[in-house]
Amino acid sequence: GIPPMVAGAARIRVTFQVDADGLLSVAAREMSSGVEASVLVKPSYGLSDDEIAQMLRSGVDHASDDMMARALREQQVEADRVIEATEHALEKDGDLLDPSERAAIDAAIDALRSLRAGSDHRAIKAGIDALGRATDEFAARRMDNSIRTVLAGHKVDELEL
To answer: Which one of 75, 82, 90, 102 has the fewest beta carbons within 10 angstroms of its own beta carbon?
Structure first.
């Protein structure tokens, strides 16, 4: 089956197909590992051709709504992931920031939380981007700090390239 992953890390493509006999097949594929799982659902009652056609028409009619709902949910999940990662980084390395920088990042987190509660996926994406810009310098400092820690006490000729 599909392996368990941390929240927000899984990217799964789910495909639903209904054939002419009313058989539903569902396949789920985890995009990073390529692992796939599928199931075939056989109805316990028969569907008429008209019922199947109506289901297909309904699917086409609501495709735009479904795509908007999907885009919203994807951005909400990404917002949750970014907020969680940022808060974890602040807990670990918040001392690398001066109070005004910390306040700006906290404000960007709060703004993203507010946007995440809404229903505009574009606004949530803009909030994610704004938080990313607010944390760019912090991320660079964290990376510099990590590299400095790893290299401390070593000479350049000791390093394997």
So the answer is: 102
Residue whose tokens read 């994807």:
74
142: Cβ contacts below 8 Å, ≥ 6 apart: 89, 93, 96
Do 29 and 10 contact (CB within 8 A), yes or no?
no
| Chain centroid, CA 102 distance in Å | 25
Same domain, 88 and 120: yes
Number of domains in the chain: 2
* DSSP class of 159: S
pTM (2 d.p.): 0.65
- Whole-angstrom CA distances from 20 to 35, 46, 53, 57, 137 are 28, 11, 9, 14, 56
Q: Is the pLDDT of residue 1 over 90?
A: no
Domain containing residue 30: 12-61
